Amino acid sequence: MRFLFKTDYEDDIKLFPHSGYVISYGVLLALLLIAPFVLSSYVMSQLVFVCIYATVGVALLILTGFTGQASLGHAAFLAIGAYTAAYLQRYNVPFPVYFLAAGILTGIIGAMVGFPALRLTGIYLVIATISFALIVEEILARWESVTNGNEGMRVKTLSLLGVTVPRDSPTFYFLCLSVLVLTIVGTLNLLRSPTGRAFVAIRDSETAARSMGVNVALYKVKSFAISAAITGFSGVLFAHKLSFISPEMFTLQLSIEFIIVILIGGTFSLHGAVLGAIFIVMIDPFLTYLKDDMPGTIAGIAATFGAGPATAGNIQSSVAAFASLNGLKGAIYGIVIVLFVLFEPLGLYGRWLKIKLFFQLFPLYKRATFKRQKIYVKSERNR
Amino acid sequence: MLDFVQQLVSGVALGCVYGLIALGFVLVYKATEVVNFAQGDLMMLGGFFAFTFIGMMGLNYWVGFAGAVAAMALFGMLAERLVVRPILGYPQFSIIMATIGLGYFLRSIAGMIWGTDDLKIETPFSQGVLRIGSLVLAYDKLSVIAATMILCTLLYLFFNKTTLGTAMRASSENMLAAYYMGIPVKRVVSIVWAISAAVATCAGVLLAPITFIHSNVGLVLGLKAFPAAVLGGFGSIPGAVVGGVMIGVIESMAGFYLPEGWKDVAPYLVLLAVLLLKPEGLFGRHVRKKV
Q: Where are the alpha helices (DSSP H) in chain B?
């Protein structure tokens, strides 16, 4: 294993702690860059969704993971970004302009949500953001002159510098990927800047942060604005990918999906957002697999273990009936959230860290390394 | 004027249901500082249980009601044991997520078992109206108001006059200290969950004649009950009911007097306004940590 000896402060805030990071992420990036020429268009389409979800996940991580402000209203920010893009397209505004406009507008609205949120903590903040999201959803449905109401809006094909970029072209994928990479690098830089460390200080203890001279209000609003702006940018890409948007796409359900992204990935690291996005996007293909191929496979396995054709047929039809149950997706979401909170609170990335540490320390691994501390005394009510 | 009173009464009746769900939030929050996002779904499940007992098995209304309440109390304890107890004492975010997950799960499972149709329970109050002059009040709405008042009185007495209630308040203040004082905190918590699930069931069964039971009813009403609980200040039993009634009245007035669309938004606008002015709710205690 490699020991990292940090001898000065510069070592501590390096973007890449050692050359291994540069190599492994370089390889990953290279693989992602050649992906569209190798993989099928269906997989590419899923990868675009992974990029978009991961970008929103990173945005939410800045707010929830690093500043400690839980938000269940990010679907609304995504909607604002998407609708800004669709609205400005009507007036033939070029892509770079409405892309930036969507981000800036969403950022401003995020800051406006952040101001009232200054006085709220914990559960009150969650409820305030839910209220905000519900109000935005209702406005989108009612403000028909701008949003077309419940009929939804068509989003024209993206055209960048006079070249049209269809939503399933490799160029669109590269665009989404570059937005994701820029967001991740930008967030990493943000987190090692004074602003990022102020965010983390606020998450760990607001009182302590304030007594160290951190302007808590300013940084909370900043965190809201940055998070909302990034979500607005991905909203534009989301709108282009779907090519049609309507209010019922941006419900509380979507906000919860974003929370699931960071929860399953792990709320303490940017890797988490990407892993969680992969998970969320994988659920639909998995359900299709469950419906189409799994019954046959299970019946085949049963047949090899000596089940008669009648029994195998029964098994196949019962598995198929189970897989085509309504609301299986919701049940899987529910179970997965509960299981992750109960057994793997650090998420998928936490699991990876544990495996890595196990092999690094092989005979000396201590089970309690990642054990969380319970706090029965500290009440979140007394802030 | 007559319209106004009519709207007021139906608003109060609807608000009482919100208040009952909010009561469930408040009970759990008061005792364990956990916000149960699955409360609305517990209500939905209670309604389905009652439907199974009354509509499908043909039991007497009151027997079915009692059966549903008992079954849901057990279910509440089970949910507490399986989902909440392992993460008690961790930051609120984990518990919020766990209960959101539980709610998701219950909603989907209920949709699988009972289908996605709207179901209806025949109650003794379904028909009949009370006429005062030209004012027409339906019995089912009056029954909701009466039941809420009875339940609130019982819960208030329970929390303030009984040993168990005192133990619950103690464990909500400081779990560790309560444990050292000999309060069986774990058992207290599971009793709290049983009570809150039972209260939710009452709400579900009372609601059945007004809005039909379907698997999403918990989400819809749960989201309305949140503003109610927050308006009242999370953690105050009278506050939850007053908040619920306020939300119900606001909603029904907005539906009647304001253009379409305001009905669904008005409660949240009021909620945001209240949170801006008084972040700890109307009846909340203002607590400051000393450093």
A: 2-32, 39-51, 61-79, 92-114, 139-161, 163-173, 175-180, 185-207, 217-231, 237-257, 262-277
